[in-house]
Amino acid sequence: MTSLLVIAVLVLLGIAIWQLTKIFHLTQIGAATYNENSEVATDRDNSVNGYLMFGFLGFIYVFTIYALIEWGHFALGTPASAHGPQYDSLMATSMWLIFITQTITQFLLHYFAFKYRGKKGKVAFYYADNDKLEFIWTIIPVIVLAGLILYGLYAWTNIMFIDEEAKEDAIYVEVYAKQFSWEVRYAGKDGKLGKANVRYIEGVNTMGVDMGDANAQDDIPAGELHLPKGKQIIFKFRSQDVLHSAYMPHFRAQMNVVPGMVTQFGFVPTVTTDDMRQDAAIMKKVANINEIRSKKSAELVAKGESPLEPYTFDYLLLCNKICGASHYNMQMKIVVEDEATFNKWLSEKKTLAATVKESKEKPAAPAEGEAAPAAKPADSAAVKTDSTMVAQVIKK
Amino acid sequence: MSAVGHEVHAHDEHGHDAHDHHHKQTFIEKYIFSLDHKMIAKQYLLTGTLMGIIGIIMSLLFRMQIAWPEESFTIFKVLLGDKFAPDGVMKNDIYLALVTIHGTIMVFFVLTAGLSGTFSNLLIPLQIGARDMASGFMNMVSYWLFFLSSVIMVCSLFVEAGPASAGWTIYPPLSALPQAIPGSGTGMTLWLVAMAIFIASSLMGSLNYVVTVINLRTKGMSMTRLPLTIWALFITAVIGILSFPVLLSAALLLIMDRSFGTSFFLSDIFIAGDVLHYQGGSPVLFEHLFWFLGHPEVYIVILPAMGLVSEIMTSNSRKPIFGYRAMIASILAIAFLSTIVWGHHMFISGMNPFLGSVFTFTTLLIAIPSAVKAFNWITTLWRGNLQMNPAMLFSIGFVSTFITGGLTGIILGDSTLDINVHDTYFVIAHFHLVMGISALYGMFAGIYHWYPKMYGRMLNKNLGYIHFWVTAVCAYGVFFPMHFIGMAGLPRRYYTNSAFPLFDELADVNVIITIFAIVGAAFQLVFLWNFFYSMFKGKRAVQNPWRSNTLEWTTPVEHIHGNWPGEIPEVYRWPYDYSKPGHDDDFVPQTVPMKEGEEELHH
């Protein structure tokens, strides 16, 4: 059946080409030849293609409008981080600029192609230069881009350079990547992540935390990323094998995860998962997705397979740097909740030290939690001493 | 200076010509190990076209997988075999291999060698008035190295564990560790070997182009009388010489890491249950080295297309190029800036954010010369007498996609905005439109325009029109919707998007994209048919079918070694005197002396 369809399509395509050739051919009958050689465009060709150029302008406009209406809602919606609105407004400014420039320049290009289509006997205007004109269209992009650059750099500095005041009660979270999953580690009561290196990986200590480090004693590992609303979060990213990229689209946040070094990104989550589920745009999106899924489920059930689960909105952490065969499915759920719920959730988690101790069943591990005052005064967040290259700089 | 060089050269070549009359060239001398730049150009074009066919078929395969994830297709079974497509369902590691090799082939083998290799070889000697390249032998070696590297790249597709599959950017550690992905074994080794040979080939070609342009211009052909094609090809060669060696060094260091246990790019790795010995290297270093070539590379791809389009557009508008000097200045500006913007690929790589600020600044600057070029092309059309030959259509199409694709560069070049669209389909849409499709349009325009020069016959224009219009619609149909799914946060290089319910609503768009891709690719068959059929059965070309000014149209239709049967013509004017008042014809070839009292414009 499929092959029959393929053949039918091919035949139809063939006929289409043949007919199109014929049309183009017919347009040339009786047309004066511009050149003795018939494979050079004639006045008819110029005319037909000139009109088609104008038509193509229509195609670009209609396609753009269609896409905006049909697909405009794909955009990620309300940003869930403090810097998100600034990001979105910069994006909106750039987009407006792009749409305006696109509309005007494509119009000029295609309209000129249509308007000045060639005719025998017509003479083009010998016009090689105009310094004033060129100056104008050099200076306009200069001014516009200067504005964009300044706005962009201002936002970039805001996002990437985190203030010291914010650091005070910031929550440090390590996001640890491996083929093909994520783990997280919270700094615990002392607010400091213990040192780590892949050489310490052993048994339940899957992130290679140095259990001899005092700061590591109260570190808490987790399989889900929970964040308290309104607190400065500073992520430290580590990878044990290849490059990954921690992409949290709803927070307008992304940072590559590089083996052998610690990278960093920080933001303040501003909308809890529950609130986001009540967001009008998100509700519409979810309803739309569920409609699609229920249709697909019906098909699956008809085929005797199990139906798809209905979708509820959740924030996501995705891998966004090619990392191997299952790159497409390296994800983690992010939950944003109010601080109390977050603290409760975290306090119910076991510390890594306790887990390690349990698994080894020997009492050698030092006391947890109390070790905090004894922490070294060195950069609290530095997981490894050679991690001088960090993607965000903490202002000292 | 150039004139002296040319005379010596010409004298030399006359000797050769006399020699050739006695000994008819054998088949091998003429068609295989040819020293003639025109033949080498055709060899580049054919090899590039074949590689292009492979690259496009690959893209169709993975597009089908994205549109209809994990469905069974007979074509997968036939082309990928049981191992990579059991029961006709594409496996995830071969998906990544297809993506990787598609990128590699299209960027390097089609749009670098196929485009600039073809037209540099064909046009540089012909348009500057030289009998051949400065070194015909080196030129031949350059082509055969390219051929060898193509063969190795194609061979790597048949390696048991699969070809390289770490993305065309081959970031280590993924590309260095076979434990991380099977393609990083023999497949990756062959990839690196092929690329090392490719770089050698490219360097030889580029050196030759630069020397030829500087030394072998005919009498009167000053730098400001060069056609813009030559300027573009010349500067392209210069960028190639500056940046390709850096990729070679990156490739060599990666080979060392892979095979000899060094730690340039690798550190602290735990994989498959073992800690590896690597210590102290940094993948970010590789990214810097790679993009130091990688970014200029996109200009190596697009500049020749810009040059071809400038020439074709003026010739078909019957009007001088607007702002000749501004066009040269913007080529130079783009070339210079292209070497200091590589960091915009690495805003979120983990490098110091301060560097991000610097690279944002330099990157957005590049929009200025690009905008100047676009405006100048549009003004060239204004009040012209446009001859809508297929080459002209592709040139107009080039400007259209260059603008559409270029504008989104404002978003990606801005470090802040890059945070959320980095490595999504938005990026794919951007670079395919601005360098992929645009450069292909430039290449098609060049082929339609110079086909009579290459093969002495004309391409069928009606097939050309069909080819253009379907391609133009499909190119937008494929890449325009990608902006939207990219803005939705859909990452690139995902085998299937079904692992995230969030992306379910994008599935229909992916089907639309794939259908446009299949139709667009199918209509390239029209071009291929036209290309090969016309080679033997096309209408015979006249000497100057497009009534152009440049020197290549003063050579006889039949190719001869040495290009001109008699003396090399002398040049008296710039190449853009179209529709100049005071002349009978609407074109004045460069070989026509200035009339008495005729004004030479300060263009």
TrEMBL record, chain A:
<dbReference type="InterPro" id="IPR011759">
    <property type="entry name" value="Cyt_c_oxidase_su2_TM_dom"/>
</dbReference>
<dbReference type="Pfam" id="PF02790">
    <property type="entry name" value="COX2_TM"/>
</dbReference>
<dbReference type="GO" id="GO:0004129">
    <property type="term" value="F:cytochrome-c oxidase activity"/>
</dbReference>
<dbReference type="GO" id="GO:0005507">
    <property type="term" value="F:copper ion binding"/>
</dbReference>
<dbReference type="InterPro" id="IPR008972">
    <property type="entry name" value="Cupredoxin"/>
</dbReference>
<feature type="transmembrane region" description="Helical">
    <location>
        <begin position="89"/>
        <end position="114"/>
    </location>
</feature>
<comment type="similarity">
    <text>Belongs to the cytochrome c oxidase subunit 2 family.</text>
</comment>
<dbReference type="GO" id="GO:0042773">
    <property type="term" value="P:ATP synthesis coupled electron transport"/>
</dbReference>
<dbReference type="InterPro" id="IPR002429">
    <property type="entry name" value="CcO_II-like_C"/>
</dbReference>
<dbReference type="InterPro" id="IPR036257">
    <property type="entry name" value="Cyt_c_oxidase_su2_TM_sf"/>
</dbReference>
<keyword id="KW-0679">Respiratory chain</keyword>
<feature type="transmembrane region" description="Helical">
    <location>
        <begin position="135"/>
        <end position="156"/>
    </location>
</feature>
<protein>
    <recommendedName>
        <fullName>cytochrome-c oxidase</fullName>
        <ecNumber>7.1.1.9</ecNumber>
    </recommendedName>
</protein>
<keyword id="KW-0472">Membrane</keyword>
<feature type="domain" description="Cytochrome oxidase subunit II copper A binding">
    <location>
        <begin position="168"/>
        <end position="348"/>
    </location>
</feature>
<feature type="region of interest" description="Disordered">
    <location>
        <begin position="356"/>
        <end position="383"/>
    </location>
</feature>
<keyword id="KW-1278">Translocase</keyword>
<feature type="transmembrane region" description="Helical">
    <location>
        <begin position="6"/>
        <end position="27"/>
    </location>
</feature>
<keyword id="KW-0249">Electron transport</keyword>
<feature type="transmembrane region" description="Helical">
    <location>
        <begin position="48"/>
        <end position="69"/>
    </location>
</feature>
<keyword id="KW-0812">Transmembrane</keyword>
<dbReference type="InterPro" id="IPR045187">
    <property type="entry name" value="CcO_II"/>
</dbReference>
Automatic annotation (TrEMBL), chain B:
<keyword id="KW-0813">Transport</keyword>
<keyword id="KW-0812">Transmembrane</keyword>
<feature type="transmembrane region" description="Helical">
    <location>
        <begin position="191"/>
        <end position="216"/>
    </location>
</feature>
<feature type="transmembrane region" description="Helical">
    <location>
        <begin position="289"/>
        <end position="310"/>
    </location>
</feature>
<feature type="transmembrane region" description="Helical">
    <location>
        <begin position="94"/>
        <end position="124"/>
    </location>
</feature>
<feature type="domain" description="Cytochrome oxidase subunit I profile">
    <location>
        <begin position="27"/>
        <end position="596"/>
    </location>
</feature>
<feature type="transmembrane region" description="Helical">
    <location>
        <begin position="354"/>
        <end position="379"/>
    </location>
</feature>
<keyword id="KW-0679">Respiratory chain</keyword>
<feature type="transmembrane region" description="Helical">
    <location>
        <begin position="509"/>
        <end position="532"/>
    </location>
</feature>
<keyword id="KW-0249">Electron transport</keyword>
<keyword id="KW-0408">Iron</keyword>
<protein>
    <submittedName>
        <fullName>Cytochrome C oxidase</fullName>
    </submittedName>
</protein>
<dbReference type="InterPro" id="IPR023615">
    <property type="entry name" value="Cyt_c_Oxase_su1_BS"/>
</dbReference>
<dbReference type="Pfam" id="PF00115">
    <property type="entry name" value="COX1"/>
</dbReference>
<feature type="transmembrane region" description="Helical">
    <location>
        <begin position="463"/>
        <end position="489"/>
    </location>
</feature>
<keyword id="KW-1133">Transmembrane helix</keyword>
<keyword id="KW-0349">Heme</keyword>
<feature type="transmembrane region" description="Helical">
    <location>
        <begin position="391"/>
        <end position="413"/>
    </location>
</feature>
<keyword id="KW-0472">Membrane</keyword>
<feature type="transmembrane region" description="Helical">
    <location>
        <begin position="425"/>
        <end position="451"/>
    </location>
</feature>
<dbReference type="GO" id="GO:0022904">
    <property type="term" value="P:respiratory electron transport chain"/>
</dbReference>
<dbReference type="GO" id="GO:0015990">
    <property type="term" value="P:electron transport coupled proton transport"/>
</dbReference>
